[in-house]
Every structure is written in C-alpha cells, then in structure tokens.
Amino acid sequence: xxxxxxxxxxxxxxxxxxxxxxxxxxxxxxxxxxxxxxxxxxxxxxxxxxxxxxxxxxxxxxxxxxxxxxxxxxxxxxxxxxxxxxxxxxxxxxxxxxxxxxxxxxxxxxxxxxxxxxxxxxxxxxxxxxxxxxxxxxxxxxxxxxxxxxxxxxxxxxxxxxxxxxxxxxxxxxxxxxxxxxxxxxxxxxxxx
Length: 193
Prior knowledge:
Helix content is 63%, strand content 0%.
C-alpha cells in the first residue's frame, strides 16, 4: 500500500520562489531540479532521519501542492478584484498585491518580440516567440493573454477615449510602473503601430 501524505494549513503558506517559477512557466519537476530543498516555508531546521530520496519526494509533493494552489488562484488572478473576495485561498492584502503584480508582470524580451512582429494567438507564433525570447511557452501565453485581456477590456469601455493608465491601474490593481507598460502597449496596439 502506498503512503498517504496529507498537509493542511490555513491560511496557506505560499512560497514566493515557487510562485515565481510557476509564473515563469516551469513544471513542478523542473522546479525540483532547479531548487532542491529550498523555499521560504519548506525548511529542514530539525534533524530528519529519512533518506535523501524521501526528502526529495516530500519536496516534490510540496511543489506540486503549491502549483495546484496557484492553478486554483489563477482564475481569480485574471480578474484581480476577485482575489480580494475569493475564499478558496485566503491571503493577506500585501500578499494579494504581490500575487497580482507578479501574475500581470511583463518580460521586456517578450514585449520587444511582440512589437517586432504582429503575433496572433496561433500556437506556432507563440512557440516562435518563446524560442526567440528564451521564455517558457506557458509564460509567453500568460503575458499574451493578459495583454489581450486588458486591450479588449479597454476597447469595450464606453469611453475608450479615456485615460488608459487610470483604467488599467483602477481595474487591474497593478503598480504604476506596470500600468505604464500596459498603457504604452495599448497605445501602440490601438494606433496600429
């Protein structure tokens, strides 16, 4: 019979390093290979007398659990105002801001690639962008979808001639610096640059 490992914590402890890897498009296996036995809540401060294979397995379970939590939160992260009202994974306001900011972040290499050629949502275009930028495909798709999501929401507003910066800051709860990046992208996309 296989061992059963159960872990319950409320509120959940979110490892910022693992979240960063998830945002960047890594798989749990890749994360385990990149950063074994590290993380801000998976510490071995006491003596464990199990084999290193068992420790690695525990670490792998922890990473997979974190990824499942992030996948559940992703629906809410797509609509930042829902992060505050969701009860699936209760987190404090500072952590909410961090999660939203990181989810909506943009890589400069991807922005350059986006502006260099007109990307469509075809898998081939996004795979090419992923190859060119050196970013994981999942990260490229997340950024592309976020740009399209903001662009469509801004276009759908009744007063699309309004201030894009205020619209983005208010509706997506991101920092001024990131809102400026999105504002520039909307301007360039709207003017068919």
